[in-house]
């Protein structure tokens, strides 16, 4: 019953009009008075913001803030895969041969998530990681490895919540939400960075369209909290074994190694 009610109310509120209205508000100066309380409630670290918080004119400016140089350390270890975001490392596991992954006891179709029959076979038997960004997190997305971008594509129309309730009661948001996918080739194989839109705000802005990306280089940003799913080709990635999930991670933190 709870699942049905949750989905019903989400459908009522997740239309084009409501989504557009919220986005316009966050982009408008009418949202500026909310910034101080938002910073306080979500305990945002003002000291690491490149710009003064008081200089932001909209909530969108706050959400998409940049960091002071040196705020995050990117390892020089060529084999290290780093977190592309500040967020919560929610889950990790194997991509089953039947094209499915299990996240928080829910089954997701990797075939549907990728929507690309050419890319799909590379990741069967590989590894997935799920990194969740709340509204409080730094919203910019960086490359987890150094490599060449093979392809970029966009899928989905609407977006549903990817928070705890959304993952529990939602209808497969990781594979159905609006999402922007970047596939990269690194020294050992392929990696897909699936950027998943959050409820109401579908905006995923690509800030770097170059073919070559360096580890830690900015590639995009979310306009609101959301989720990044990393997909690794079979036999190319060894995750760290000592991370207890769920775990807060920061941009540049080592998650494992290529092999």
What does this protein look like?
Keywords: Cell membrane, Decarboxylase, Lipid biosynthesis, Lipid metabolism, Lyase, Membrane, Phospholipid biosynthesis, Phospholipid metabolism, Pyruvate, Zymogen. Its cofactor is pyruvate. Pathway: Phospholipid metabolism; phosphatidylethanolamine biosynthesis; phosphatidylethanolamine from CDP-diacylglycerol: step 2/2; Lipid metabolism. The protein has 259 residues and is of the alpha+beta class. It has two domains: 2-63, no CATH class; 80-258, no CATH class. Helices cover 21% and strands 31% of the residues. The protein is built from eight helices and 16 strands. The strands form four sheets. Strands 11-7-8-9-13-5-2-15 form an eight-stranded antiparallel β-sheet. Strand 8 and strand 9 form a beta hairpin. It starts with a helix and ends with a strand.
SSE arrangement:
Blueprint: H1 2-13, H2 16-27, H3 35-41, H4 59-63, E1 80-82, E2 87-94, E3 100-103, E4 106-109, H5 110-114, H6 120-123, E5 127-132, E6 140-142, E7 147-155, H7 164-169, H8 173-176, E8 179-186, E9 189-196, E10 204-206, E11 212-213, E12 218-222, E13 227-232, E14 237-239, E15 247-249, E16 254-258
Antiparallel strand pairs: 1-16, 2-5, 2-15, 3-4, 5-13, 6-12, 7-8, 7-11, 8-9, 9-13, 10-12, 14-16
């Amino acid at each position: 019953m709870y699942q049905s009610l949750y989905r019903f109310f989400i459908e009522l509120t997740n239309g084009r009009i409501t989504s557009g209205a919220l986005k316009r508000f966050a982009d408008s100066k009418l949202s500026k008075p909310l910034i101080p309380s938002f910073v306080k409630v979500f305990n945002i670290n003002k000291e690491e913001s490149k710009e003064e918080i008081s200089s932001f004119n909209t909530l969108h400016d706050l959400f998409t803030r940049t960091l002071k140089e040196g705020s995050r350390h990117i390892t020089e270890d060529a084999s290290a895969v780093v977190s592309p975001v500040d967020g919560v490392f929610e889950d990790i596991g194997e991509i089953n041969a039947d094209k499915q992954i299990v996240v928080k006891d829910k089954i997701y179709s990797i075939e549907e998530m990728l929507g690309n029959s050419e890319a799909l076979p590379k990741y069967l038997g590989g590894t997935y990681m799920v990194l969740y960004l709340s509204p409080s997190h730094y919203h910019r997305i960086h490359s987890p490895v150094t490599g060449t971008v093979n392809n970029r594509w966009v899928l989905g129309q609407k977006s549903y919540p990817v928070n705890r309730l959304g993952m529990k009661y939602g209808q497969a948001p990781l594979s159905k939400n609006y999402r922007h996918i970047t596939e990269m080739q690194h020294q050992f194989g392929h990696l897909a960075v699936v950027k998943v839109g959050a409820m109401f705000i579908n905006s995923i802005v690509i800030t770097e369209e170059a073919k070559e990306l360096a580890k830690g280089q900015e590639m995009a940003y979310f306009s609101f909290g959301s989720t990044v799913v990393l997909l690794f080709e079979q036999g190319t990635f060894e995750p760290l074994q000592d991370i207890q999930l769920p775990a807060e991670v920061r941009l540049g933190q080592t998650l494992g190694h290529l092999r």
